[in-house]
Amino acid sequence: MSPPSGTTVSVGAAEGDHAGKVAARTYRFTVHGGSAPARVPADGCRLPSSAWSFDPAARVTTVTTGSLALDRGFGLRLVGNK
Q1: How do the pLDDT tens digits run along the chain, 82 residues long?
Q2: Most distant CA pair in the chain: distance in Å?
Q3: Is 10 helix (H, G, I), strand (E, B) or coil?
Q4: What's the pTM value of the predicted model, to 2 decimals?
Q5: 34-39-42-47 Cα dihedral, nearest 10 degrees
Q6: Nearest-angstrom CA–CA distance, 14 and 54
Q7: If you count Cβ atoms within 10 Å of the first and of the last residue's Cβ in the chain, which end, N or C, has fewer?
Q8: If DSSP codes are grouped into helix, strand and coil, which group holds residue 40?
Q9: Which of 57, 67, 68, 73 is nearest to 8 (CA)?
Q10: Residue pair 34/58 in contact by the 8 Å Cβ criterion
Q11: CB within 8 A of 15, min separation 6: which ones?
Q12: What is d(CA 48, CA 77) in angstroms, rounded to the nearest whole number?
């Protein structure tokens, strides 16, 4: 059996400091192409289906994360069925 197909997005930790820099923020990703993912884990934790959607006409998956700390990177994966 082959591993599930998918797309990975990696986000690095924010660098530097400035006045007013926030400690955490939400992210919104728009990933083009492919088919609807079966699941979407972010930083190793599966996001609820309410956190992402797939538009089959445009072949676009939109993912919105909860608030994540800027001082560390994270990975987001769109995992397919194949």
Answers
A1: 445 578 999 999 999 988 989 999 999 999 998 889 999 999 888 999 999 999 999 999 999 999 999 999 999 999 986 5
A2: 52
A3: strand
A4: 0.83
A5: 130
A6: 28
A7: N
A8: coil
A9: 73
A10: no
A11: none
A12: 13
